[in-house]
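# nightly structure sweep
# worker-07 picked up a monomer target from the shared queue
# config: single-sequence mode, recycle default, output format = structure tokens
# input follows
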Amino acid sequence: MQRYLLIPCLLLTVLFLNSCETVIDAKLDTGTSQLSVDATITDQPGPQTIRLTQTSAYFDSSTPPAALSATVTVTDDAGKSYSFTDPDNDGYYVWQPTGNDTLGHIGRTYQLNIAFQGETYQSSSKLNRVPTVDSITFVKTKLNPFSKTEGYQGEFYARDLPGATDYCRVKFYRNGELQNKPGNIILAQDGAFQGSADTDGLMFILPIRQSINPDSLYTFNDVVKVEIQSLPKEAFEFWQELRTQITNGGLFATPPTNVPTNIVNTNTAGKKAVGFFITSAVQSRTAKVEEANLRPDL
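# output follows
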């Protein structure tokens, strides 16, 4: 008898829940468009590029509009100024070297100046030292203990520079393609995770050395490039917060917050900007998945 009564009760519950469904058309305030700055200056030879765009509505999935007709310069603490121009009128402002000149030099501090739509924005960043990548090795392994799929796992070796706290980002490329998923934002403080034991001057810890692997294993003859970029402390914290925000999901997700910026409007009452200005020294090494770079699975 109880079983037969249960069926109509369930039907009534489903009907009640369906009748309570209300569609809400939320009209969100898009706010004022802001200047967005994507600027990383390195000590590497060749052109340097700064991208300027304007922010758009939260649910607008189109490409952000370029910030055109800006005046962009970078000045170092030795008094040298570098002008960036937008030759293609697409928001990519480029500095072209003359001869063997490079823009970034370790130990110097750089100031970014942007004049845009009647506002003046500034930022500064010091270009810090960076450790070298000593070597890259590979070991043959399975995708997981229960898988028959085999491939190669990579590991790079680098030693932190002694005598000061060093911050860096590790990037890696597979056959020339940057592995750029949220989980590929690899950060290190003195070759370890922030808050770890004192690792000044020591070899990078194992989890970071082995973080240069894509979702799938490498295959024989793949070419892998590992790049270490030095970071000022504030840029390290920026990347930490950015990684947190773009991987913030699931059951225990927290409310999103604004990622910090070091782009400041000289007029405190003027429009704010977003983005970050970073200077980096870069060291890299490239290795091929081949017999010469294989080590036994220990």
